[in-house]
Amino acid sequence: MNILLMMPPVPKKTSWAASEKMPPLGIGYLISFLIQDGHRVYFIDNELSEPLDYSVLIDKRIDFVGLYLNTMFFSEGNGLLWEIERLREKGKWKGKILVGGPHPTVRPEDIPDFVDHIVCGE
């Protein structure tokens, strides 16, 4: 399977300090496990790269998109989720959407209903 894992961008305005960038070690472990299991894995950190070009979902034939969400990134991550869902609604992409991280673990009710899987716990 082709899997895209993503980190949303850090919000431009937040109540918390957002200048410190921590490497996403949990996603790194997950990527390693998925590769060892034979999957092709792509990773996009939307803070460190150009804004997501949604055509990558089609060009790379992505089967699953996994998005890491913590509370500070929730608004930006939610925006990414809705953009991906619009591609599905238009029939341009037929993959599955997964979210994980601290926010969905504590408040799964905040996650849009169109998300296929919520991973709780880390």
Write up what this structure looks like:
This protein has helices spanning about 25-35, 55-60, 75-90, 100-105; strands at about 1-5, 40-45, 65-70, 95-100, 115-120. The relative contact order is 0.20. Strand 3, helix 3 (about 75-90) and strand 4 (about 95-100) form a beta-alpha-beta unit. The mean pLDDT is about 90. The chain is globular. The chain starts with a strand and ends with a strand. The protein is an alpha/beta fold. The protein has a five-stranded parallel β-sheet, sandwiched between helices. It has four helices and five strands; from the N terminus they run βαβαβαβαβ.
Average pLDDT reading = 88
Tell me the fraction of residues in β-strands, as a range.
15-25%
Ranges where pLDDT stays below 50 over 5 or more residues in a row are none
Class by SSE composition: alpha/beta
Q: Count the E strands.
A: 5
Give the % helix: 25-40%
Q: What oligomeric state is this?
A: single chain
Give the terminus-to-terminus CA distance: 22 Å
Shape: globular
Query: What is the succession of H and E elements?
Result: EHEHEHEHE
Tally the helices: what do you get? 4
How is the largest sheet built, in terms of strand order? 2-1-3-4-5
Largest sheet: 5 strands, parallel
**C-alpha-based Rg, rounded:** 14 Å
How do the strands and helices of this protein lay out in sequence?
Blueprint: E1 2-7, H1 25-36, E2 40-45, H2 55-59, E3 64-68, H3 74-89, E4 96-100, H4 102-106, E5 117-119
Parallel strand pairs: 1-2, 1-3, 3-4, 4-5
